[in-house]
Amino acid sequence: MTPPGKTxxxxxxxxxxxxxxxxxxxxxxxxxxxxxxxxxEPFQAQWAGVPLWLNASGLTTGPIPCARGAYExxxxxxxxxxxxxxxxxxxxxxxxxxxxxxxxxxxxxxxLRQAGISxxxxxxxxxxxxxxxxxxxxDQRPYDRDLVNAWWRILLSTQRVMQAFxxxxxxxxxxxxxxxxxxxxxxxxxxxKATSPGAKAxxxxxxxxxxxxxxxxxxxxxxxxxxxxxxxxxxxxxxGIESAKIVPSAA
Length: 251
What we know:
By secondary structure, this protein is of the alpha+beta class. The chain is built from 5 helices and 12 strands.
């Protein structure tokens, strides 16, 4: 049932990659900065602890342990702020709007340090073509609040569908979340068998593709594939899967 005051259009808003693309760069880099803070956490197999988690206003790191206790960073896509709070009582927020990646990086990391949060991260973006270090990306970028909010609402609706599907699976699965490197929401299920990521696999792939899996999710699109899409892949790739018929016909 659709909640009171909401319509299906609210839950699945219209979305265009071409309209979203100018805003996506700033949003993606901001989420990478926040996501990289999670790399201080103990490593979980197949990067299970790395995603950002969806909440009722946006995305959150969840609690990140540190010397003084723990802290949490949230991207609020209702009020359009980055918010942080700590177990020692510090809290704050930064308003989101048109700016450069470098200016956002400098301001956000400085305010986190002022709150007593250690912010030692690698400033090179991950899993993007032609990466520019966050602190050197000085081009002014737009930030369209309505499109960011629509993108987040699609993530929420996608998570609901994926949770229903994943809940029927009795084997090993990962929590559903946003992979900030590739900016897609994804869930993964495993059959319990180890596999090789390949001799030429990089560090990320070596720690992701070392078990047989099926991954599925949604992303907003990219320059190489300029439209939003649901996706799924199986690793290792089963013979003949490229000719398999997808059903139902609406899929």
